Amino acid sequence: MNTFLESLNPELRDAIQLIGITISFEAGQSVFNRGDAGTAIYVIESGGARVHDGDLVLNMLGEGDVFGEIAGLGGTVRTASVTADEDLAVLRVESEALYSALQKRPEALRGLIQMLCEREGGMANRMTNRSRQLQAAQQEMEIGRRIQAGFLPDVLPEVPGYEVASHFQAARVVAGDFYDAFYIPSIDRLALVIGDVCDKGVGAALFMTLFRSLIRATAQSRTFVTWAVDHNPGDSSTPEDQDNDALVHETLANTVALTNNYVATTHGKTSMFASVFVGLLDTKTGALDYVNAGHEEAYIVGATGVRLALPPTGPVLGIFAGANHTIATANIDHGETILLYTDGVPEATSQSGEQFSEQRVLSLLESWQGSADELLEMIVSSICEFTKGAGQHDDITMLASRRESV
User: pTM for this structure?
Assistant: First the structure.
């Protein structure tokens, strides 16, 4: 005797066993699908089944469990699918046959009503527990969001002759994008950083904090970055013996190398990586030394649009230890703006499935003359107009710095 039938009063149990038909299903075979008409209830005699909505498993069932009773007795459509998880034998009870049998068995009808009330009460308790668990999970995610927000700069640096602006818009509670801007006194440079960790969700958010922290800590510590690269053991020179341009290049090279090597060797099994742009700006001359590790092209924008694009100079960070990243140079002239962004900008998608595209970004920059803040506001406004209420698929992050006109 199975559990469900044992819980019924004798009259209802006899009625179900009298009209029920045993049906077998092979592992992987569908019992019914979401959206099917509910015409019967099922009791598992042997084996197991899973209740699911697509790939999302809602419940696992075993011998003695009943399923399909709400739609089966109510004549509504199935709200989930049931598939045999192993070879399965069920007692199928057609609702019309059960109603016909109940007309002659008043006590069985009483038992059916009692069974449904008990199961409804159990479902209410499970829903309450799940709601509490969901609420606790949401609270944890909110804590995570606040902690992650603390890894992004509260205030952007104020640099004479320059304006620095940013925009950060997460697609989920936590994000995989990051940006940073900070001054490095030891080499007299302004660091401009933007990155995008692969994947989404909590995993990407954890690695976002790792990448961002490694980059900032390494770039700001000359002793640390000197340790991070291979050097000649017989070379007793110190950073103070080198000229500042060499120190800038060493800082940039070591920052990228240490971040890449640490993630690749320590967390290689996770296959997590990030595209990153790291630039060191001489605010006196406008000279920019940078590494673009597999990131979107950065743009230097002048009065007639994009004057210069800064494409990748090496692969993404975190996959291959020892990967080579070339240091490139550019210059931001008076009145020009450097724009950095993640792929959430060109890949913002409309309700029809069309992407915003890099070409639309370039079109917006053709005759731009405003401030860095206004530039980012214009791009965000254009994306919002383009998507018009469509769901945000990826984080949207931008960082811009404008050099004052002469």
Answer: 0.68
